[in-house]
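Practice problem 4.
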């Protein structure tokens, strides 16, 4: 390493290798897994927890140190966003023992695991609702919301109507009922203590009290305080699918994190920066960086992502250009907070339109062995190579993702720091100094299709070393202290 550095110095390059510096806190590189479609261990071609356990080394090799599991509790639906028992594992996925084995291995690899917690509603097959529906005097009647007359978002049962904002099979819980809150407390304790999960992803938080931000924030804060009273360092991220301004309002709630929907999807910040209408993509990325830090409270952990199980996949939004998909992953990886990557995006899997089509079976090896796609799938087209093939190819999208996550692990400032956007003099190029805990790194991003040569001396960067790089479209990055040569679609990390 020392010899290599000296050789490079001799030919004028200020380049050195960086070591991983992974910090065990809440700023993680998260990976979202739909267990059903991920990896099967027992031959029925449906993904399960034992299958996930077998793939934890793979997830770790991507540089991920957090996993969000879509719902795993018993449910009549394939997606399991309607729970019938909050204290067990769906038999399709395995047992509580399988879950513990998976978690133990994840923890041994330094991976935290959070699980989806669906509290807005239960399944209509949940015994609580069955009892509430059958008998007006049931002790569970007030666990749900009833009216005597038809209303929007309500369905008929007997002579009454119950609230069900999504669909009639998902009756909304009455979250004002102290007995419901006490039960939720027991659910939190079961998963945090008995099962040892590291936290939760909260589904549909804007629907807890539909249209009532203040009450939603109150409930979220109650939930956060209750969870921390059980496990002080647990992490909770909420799904508020709305614009940046309302997300900022939700950040007043006392939980750690909210998904940054404005970064994702078609028309989101990242897709737009890489689109044809943006003339100065570097300036745009700098402006987004500044906007997010201005709008979001300092103590919140932003959770940016490109796609999830409810949105079109990154490759479907960005188009078939793999270089562009890589650049999008690079732009995501340079964002503050805890980034989320949806399983399969790292190999460019496609998915759009209907929900099952967005949740296709993972392509591990060959099409004949692909994990089953969920029921209702209409289009299952795989255009990119499998995991096995992409692991072998140093220029694959998968290896780009791994390299991008490695930069986050080598430079803790990227996730945790505050930004100073430096005027690069080129609208195509963004220069950000990110500072945390008394240390800084400089992130230089060229999200344009043009090569650029930056005057490092004029920008005050000449004393730094090039310690990391990502080139989405090939080419060579070089740094002499005088100039920084940036190929199209490249990212450089400079450090003292
Ligand atoms: Ca299986």
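Answer key:
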């Amino acid at each position: 390493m020392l010899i290599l550095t000296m050789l490079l110095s001799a030919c004028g390059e200020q380049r050195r290798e960086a070591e991983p510096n992974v910090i065990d806190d809440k700023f993680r590189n998260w990976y979202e897994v739909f267990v059903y479609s991920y990896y099967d261990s027992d031959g029925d071609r449906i993904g399960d927890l034992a299958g996930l356990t077998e793939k934890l080394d793979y997830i770790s090799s991507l540089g991920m140190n957090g996993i969000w599991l879509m719902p795993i509790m018993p449910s009549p639906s394939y997606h399991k966003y309607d729970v019938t028992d909050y204290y067990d594992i769906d038999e399709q996925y395995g047992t509580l023992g399988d879950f513990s084995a998976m978690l133990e291995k994840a923890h041994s690899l330094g991976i935290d695991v959070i699980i989806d917690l669906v509290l807005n509603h239960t399944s209509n097959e949940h015994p609580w609702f069955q009892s509430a529906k059958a008998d007006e005097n049931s002790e569970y009647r007030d666990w749900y919301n009833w009216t005597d007359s038809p209303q929007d978002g309500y369905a008929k049962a007997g002579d009454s109507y119950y609230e069900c904002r999504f669909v009639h099979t998902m009756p909304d819980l009455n979250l004002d009922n102290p007995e419901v809150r006490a039960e939720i407390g027991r659910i939190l304790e079961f998963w945090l203590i008995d099962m040892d999960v590291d936290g939760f992803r909260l589904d549909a938080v804007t629907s807890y009290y539909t249209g009532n931000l203040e009450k939603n924030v109150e409930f979220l804060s109650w939930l956060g305080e209750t969870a921390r009273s059980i496990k002080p360092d647990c992490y909770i991220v909420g799904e508020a699918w709305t614009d940046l301004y309302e997300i900022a309002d939700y950040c007043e709630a006392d939980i750690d994190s909210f998904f940054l929907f404005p970064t994702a999807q078609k028309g989101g910040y990242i897709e737009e920066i890489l689109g044809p209408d943006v003339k100065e993509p570097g300036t745009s990325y700098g402006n987004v960086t500044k906007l997010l830090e201005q709008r979001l409270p300092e103590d919140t952990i932003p959770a940016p992502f490109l796609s999830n199980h409810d949105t079109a996949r990154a490759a479907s939004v960005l188009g078939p250009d793999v270089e562009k998909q890589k650049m999008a992953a690079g732009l995501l990886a340079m964002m503050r907070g805890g980034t989320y990557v949806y399983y399969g995006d790292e190999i460019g899997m496609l998915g759009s339109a209907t929900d099952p089509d967005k949740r296709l079976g993972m392509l591990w090896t060959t099409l004949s062995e692909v994990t089953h796609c969920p029921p209702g799938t209409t289009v299952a087209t795989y255009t990119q190579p499998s995991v096995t093939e992409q692991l072998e190819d140093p220029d694959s999208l998968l290896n780009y993702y791994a390299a991008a996550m490695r930069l986050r692990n080598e430079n803790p400032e990227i996730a945790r720091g505050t930004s100073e956007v430096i005027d690069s003099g080129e609208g195509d190029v963004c220069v950000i100094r990110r500072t945390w805990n008394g240390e800084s790194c400089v992130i230089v991003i060229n999200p344009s299709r043009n090569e650029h040569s930056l005057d490092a001396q004029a920008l005050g960067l000449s004393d730094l070393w090039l310690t990391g790089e990502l080139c989405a479209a090939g080419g060579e990055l070089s740094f002499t202290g005088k100039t920084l040569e940036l190929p199209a679609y490249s990212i450089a990390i400079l450090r003292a």
